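TEACHING EXERCISE
Course module: macromolecular assemblies
Task: Read the component lines below, then compare them to the predicted structure of the full complex.
Student: A.B.
Group: 4
Components provided:
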Amino acid sequence: QKEVEQNSGPLSVPEGAIASLNCTYSDRGSQSFFWYRQYSGKSPELIMFIYSNGDKEDGRFTAQLNKASQYVSLLIRDSQPSDSATYLCAVKRSNFGNEKLTFGTGTRLTIIP
Amino acid sequence: ETGVTQSPTHLIKTRGQQVTLRCSSQSGHNTVSWYQQALGQGPQFIFQYYREEENGRGNFPPRFSGLQFPNYSSELNVNALELDDSALYLCASSLGEGDSPLHFGNGTRLTVT
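Instructor-supplied answer key:
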């Protein structure tokens, strides 16, 4: 079992719709959860992080965390063509800066105009 | 703008050669982490340096080594390059004592032929 699992996609969503990206993790000791966006040929860009169960909203983005189910998701509202990218889920065992990130393989999202 | 600068941007080496990649940390950050991202995969943790000492290492062979300098800039050295070392190498800096999400530099694309 992979430590962090994501559906590799591609996930195609019409422009203006809600894109839903999912991630599960195997380590129950994980404390911090991150979503990165990566455009082709570029480095990952942090877009959201969440530490507590529930929802966290930032503009068009909402991260959702359910530690009991070991599940974290990212919702993108009013999807735009510029949202087309690979989305990487990452987890960390502690809330301290010196702990490594464990990444999934990413979900490729395509927004259809 | 993340404040983390990596050089060079692209590099082509031959199998068996050695390579040095460089990373300039964001001002005030005393921790630097290196990740390797192969095509179609998520980033994999190589190692981390905190105040010039290695304080965490992933599942990479000893031919992957690093340094952190007093100004907290860092180098990643890879000896005896193999074809599978072709990847995007990512550097991120952070405050080791606290909780700060990782922001990556623009990366170095290494191609081994």
